[in-house]
DNA sequence: TCAGGTTATCTATAAACAAGATAGTAGCGA
DNA sequence: TCGCTACTATCTTGTTTATAGATAACCTGA
């Protein structure tokens, strides 16, 4: 059973004529006859009343209903890839908690305005987890800290963040090693690249990582820092966006530790759905506006 | 885009290998490559990651979802015709009010027990209307009074009914012409063959059809007869089935007027869905039990 | 019965397909 | 780094299938 034959069957049922069906689908009447006949032989049922008025039999009518389901699914699938201008379908994005909170809203708003027919799904998690999701094909693209060395993946430097130390009291210089040792550190769960930076920072101060509490959400973490539970390390922009809600204070970190780049990573562009391609374009536009010195690889 | 290619795509996505997909669908690996490649060219997107693990790209995953919709519709359609033993789908039956009330329940119960997966739809109406429905393909088969002369239709004498005169008082002989003239007659709406019999009966008594009230339902009609509104003519069996609920009385009519045959009419058997074929069989069995002298044409 | 329109059949050409053989490639382990 | 293995891509060949056009058969309505 071929989609071509079913399309002809539907056309015959609708036009009530083999010739008209042939014309509609740009072929000749003899081919319509052949296709219908083949369908009938395949199913062992007469599908079309030929004598007098040409119209579908009960069996034909029943098949037409299924044919319409198949054809509409087919046409929808085709429009997923060949839809002109407007993309449709689904876009699954993986992003770090901080990126989701700070950077994505603007971009998603712009994207949704451009492509209202795309269903957007966001999964948040630490870098390592996101890379895993991408490798498993459970998301279409991710925003992670650092480019993915794995070949056959497309990386685009999306955002540059400045990490700052966040505490509950104003700071003018780095807390003493003693203060750091006795304080707790709050970080995202295992795998978050920011957490590595915390450990790096502590090491640079000659302090071994002490107690590190793990959090799943940004709000919870900042709330706890504000409550004096300890320190954390976050992008400056993220903190500033929330500073009016929490009683928190920041301290700049040394450049070598502070600078952290967020990359947009996705499989090769040849594998992109129009929805993803369009998202990458939206992202590129947004990045160019913010910092013209973008790097693709 | 062919169903065959989509089936291969799904198999590749599920097995994670071209060779395994080929084996599953009883073909060779080179054909799988060709089909997938053709799909990719057609859609302008890479569907399968070939390097390392063979797995679908985001685009491939999206297409697989549509493919599954198409294929399941296809398989369902095939099982509609090729399903062994159990028929499925839909059966649209047209029947007269009296047949529906008196004869169908038994048959439908037997049919439903045999074919539980068939959705049954009943449309009731007078003979002329039912024939119209059948000719238009809006029902799959009908029960009507009299065989359909139109060629290319399959007729089977299903039931023989004895029409009786129904009134609100006990009758031992035909009411007088005078009584008939001053009485109202209750009948189904225009097109009901029983109504023609009423007029025939009145004519045989030398009376012109007087007031005839039209009803849409049997219950309403019998209720009105019981209330003394007038006479009606109905199959004996139908009346007997309802006699305990209404205060009504019957009088046998002359054989020439009384005998009326109900036929099962459907298009040619070649056009039957398994659901309809199975129904015809159930009916034939039921008819043989009741009156072995059945006639098919 | 005839005319007009419609479907079925036939045929030659072109295209598509399936299977097998072979070449190329990535990943793995020594 | 070097094979080894398992996999996909490509090429070839014979066969099947699709297409368009011409023609025959058919039905319907006048």
TrEMBL record, chains A, B:
InterPro entries: LysR_HTH_N (IPR000847), LysR_subst-bd (IPR005119), WH-like_DNA-bd_sf (IPR036388), WH_DNA-bd_sf (IPR036390). It comes from the Bacteria. SUPFAM superfamilies: Periplasmic binding protein-like II (SSF53850), Winged helix' DNA-binding domain (SSF46785). Residues 1-57 form the HTH lysR-type domain. Pfam families: HTH_1 (PF00126), LysR_substrate (PF03466). Keywords: DNA-binding, Transcription, Transcription regulation. PANTHER family: HTH-TYPE TRANSCRIPTIONAL REGULATOR, HTH-TYPE TRANSCRIPTIONAL REGULATOR GLTR. Belongs to the LysR transcriptional regulatory family. This is LysR family transcriptional regulator. It comes from Vreelandella neptunia.
């Amino acid at each position: 059973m071929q989609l071509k034959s079913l399309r002809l069957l539907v056309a015959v049922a609708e036009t009530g004529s083999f010739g008209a069906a042939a014309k509609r689908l740009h072929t000749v009447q003899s081919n319509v006859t052949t296709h219908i006949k083949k369908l009938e032989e395949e199913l062992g049922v007469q599908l079309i009343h030929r004598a007098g008025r040409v119209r579908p039999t009960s069996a034909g009518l029943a098949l037409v209903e299924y044919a319409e389901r198949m054809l509409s699914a087919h046409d929808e699938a085709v429009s997923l890839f060949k839809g002109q201008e407007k993309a449709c379908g689904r876009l699954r994005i993986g992003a770090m908690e901080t990126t989701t909170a700070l950077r994505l809203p603007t971009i998603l708003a712009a994207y949704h305005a451009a492509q209202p027919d795309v269903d957007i799904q966001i999964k948040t998690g630490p870098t390592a987890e996101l890379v895993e999701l991408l490798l498993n094909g459970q998301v279409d693209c991710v925003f992670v800290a650092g480019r993915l060395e794995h070949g056959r993946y497309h990386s685009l430097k999306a955002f540059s963040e400045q990490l700052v130390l966040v505490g509950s009291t104003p700071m003018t210089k780095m807390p003493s090693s003693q203060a750091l040792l006795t304080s707790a550190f709050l970080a995202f769960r295992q795998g978050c690249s920011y957490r590595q930076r915390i450990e790096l920072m502590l090491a640079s101060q000659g302090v071994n990582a002490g107690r590190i509490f793990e959090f799943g959400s940004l709000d919870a973490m900042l709330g706890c820092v504000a409550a004096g539970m300890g320190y954390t390390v976050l992008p400056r922009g993220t903190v500033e966006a929330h500073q009016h809600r929490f009683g928190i204070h920041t301290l700049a970190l040394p450049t070598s530790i502070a600078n952290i780049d967020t990359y947009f990573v996705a499989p090769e562009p040849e594998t992109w759905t129009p929805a993803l391609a369009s998202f990458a374009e939206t992202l590129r536009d947004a990045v160019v506006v913010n910092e013209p010195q973008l790097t693709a690889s």
